[in-house]
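Quick illustration, no need to memorize.
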Amino acid sequence: MSGNNLKSHTVGWIGTGKMGYPMAKLLINAGADVKVYNRTAAKAEPLGVEVVGKPSDLAERDIIFTIVTDDAAIREMITGPDGVLSSASMPKIISDSSTISIETSKDIRAACEAKGVKFLAAPISGNGHAVAAGKATLGVSGAREAYDIARPYIAALGRAETYIGEGDSSRLAKLAHNVMLGVVAQCMAEITVLCEKGGIERHAFLNYFNNSAMSSIFTNYKAPALVNLDYTATHTSKMLRKDLDLALTEARNLEVPMPVTNLTREMVQALIGAGHGENDFAALIEMQARAAGYNIQPENVEVDDGLKDAAE
């Protein structure tokens, strides 16, 4: 997107972790006027823009984007003693891309509206590598007029954005998305171990799979981890458990049976119990291999993650 389209409003950014940093960088590279807050300021400094001392220092910005770890963190950033809403100044719009509960999102929305601030729920789909490659997508809900104002900035964060509706409907859509994340990851572990125990090298099977109709961006960018057993976290097992727990809470509230999701949640719990809580959930393949009676080994083969071309 041309930077000329991003000069109408000033931007504040809260959260420069695995997802937030590449997202903020995309906006900055697109020409937006951005100031940043992060709990550990040193992690935000390489962005090359002004880093402020507390969230409330961003309150004079027109649009504030947030992406933090959990419910407690977003409450602290927005409604805490030094949160954005503690300032005398107020932004026009706050757009949050964190994966949080619908209850917390509703509370934050109400607090914003009480101060005359429009609140958009804009969860993002894709890991940090996908974000950096421009392949992430966002679902957005909230007031349509706020979305229309923020849309050029949201569009700079990924390859597509979808307006889902009013209120916090995008939160439920993101939880459904992350259920699929966990279910597909467990399924990939199962079928890859099945093929390996039957004599097929993992990289050969996954290359075949990712050139088939069943391929997806997700199955491509998880392939290197499954082949080479690199569990450097893009999304930890504990984070996936949180996502599944949030989804299952909504399922209970809505009286929707989700037997496959419940089973997947227990597999992720077992993975955490086995010591992989801070590792990427791709480690499910190691647990699956052990259940199949063998110790899986890295193949040390270069595997295309499907993201390199987009990043270049």
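The chain has two domains: 3-167, 175-311.
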